[in-house]
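Hi R.,

Quick one: here's the D-alanyl-D-alanine carboxypeptidase sequence you asked about.
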Amino acid sequence: MQHRVRSLTGTAIRHFLLPAIVATLYACSPVSPKALQKNFRQTEVALQEHVGFVLYDPLKKEKLADYNGNTYFTPASNTKIFTFFTSLKLLGDSIPALKYVVRGDSLIFWGTGDPSFLYPFVFTNGTAYTFLKGAPQQLYFAADNFPTAFYGPGWAWDDYNDYYAAERSPLPIYGNLATFTTAGSAVQVEPPFFRTSILPEALQKKPAIIRNLDQNQFIYHPGAQPSTRTFTIPFKTSSVLTAQLLGDTLKRLITVLEKPVSRLGTKTLKGIPTDSLYRVMMQDSDNFIAEQLLLACAGMISDTLKPEIAINYMKQHDLHDLVDDPVWKDGSGLSRYNLFTPGAIVQLWEKIYHTVPRERLFPLLAIGGSKGTIRSYYKGGTPYIYGKTGTLSNNHCLSGFLVAKSGRLLIFSFMHNNYTASTAIIRQHMQETLKKIYENY
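And here's the predicted structure, written out as tokens:
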């Protein structure tokens, strides 16, 4: 018993001192490749974690620093960088909103994966809504192009009630999310279609809305002290529900065609500019958009909305020369099965940089001290970090571009895995490192 108390106390002291340890490591440290490697080794010991880092000059084609650059890490939302590049290569300047064919008095339409239909977090021009609303034919929704599971491989099933784990579907509507606003015992929901699916229950002290795992029943717990709250919950998708939601919104009858339908003569209705989607995906790390974009990419090279089609195509074509073969399982990075190396991610950013002009690219990314998931970090005058974060429990990554004080453009990938310290401490370590590189390169 005495040994256990001593061990717990040591652990508590160690975690208490971690911020000071990190600050000490970087207080006076130089930024030469050898010094960086030494500091990364010390950090791995101090934080009991794994660190990967690559720094690269794309103009000189020179690797400036490499620590575990060919070691595989869980990338979390750095996976979206792969989805971003795939979309840039396959989608063009506008996302396909619908595929359709007119046969007699019938308009048959297929989803393309477009995430923007009535999704409140992106710009929408109402193209698909106006088209379907005004069509003189009877409307038939064909769902035979979507053989994909609603969750990706390696997703955590118990995230089903969290907004960031919306289900994948061929024709999403409202982002496959229901938004509940509570005030005491009263509950309002958008879309109103779900207002009869709310069941009150007073079993929890804290206010909550919890969906039944397998169906769209939403249990409302007002809590011990009811208050005005907003809850955003994924709903359970199906082709029938899609038709019902569309019909409720368009005020029209939508009939579902479950059997395969001939696609001879199919046309494509173009939707919103793809940059509108890329910006939200890359800055706010929107998982739903990422997953749907990968489906849309698959639809550009096949008749089937299956992410593996797009992944395999890219690995055989534009990504065939990556220094380390990516283990790539989904569009968003929710999967714990994804594995990438810092070296491959840096190489990917270089490909992106040669695909998209800098003046278009940088405004689409998270910007240190200004936009997206790093708006509260990497501050200090003119922004110098442009990139993409990635966070899962015990994992945090940041990869992208660093514009040094000298004006020199660098590409980096910084990956931390399997730590038990707080992510705030990991982020502090990363900020100290990147700031010194900014000042000295």
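Residues 173-236 form one domain.

Cheers,
M.
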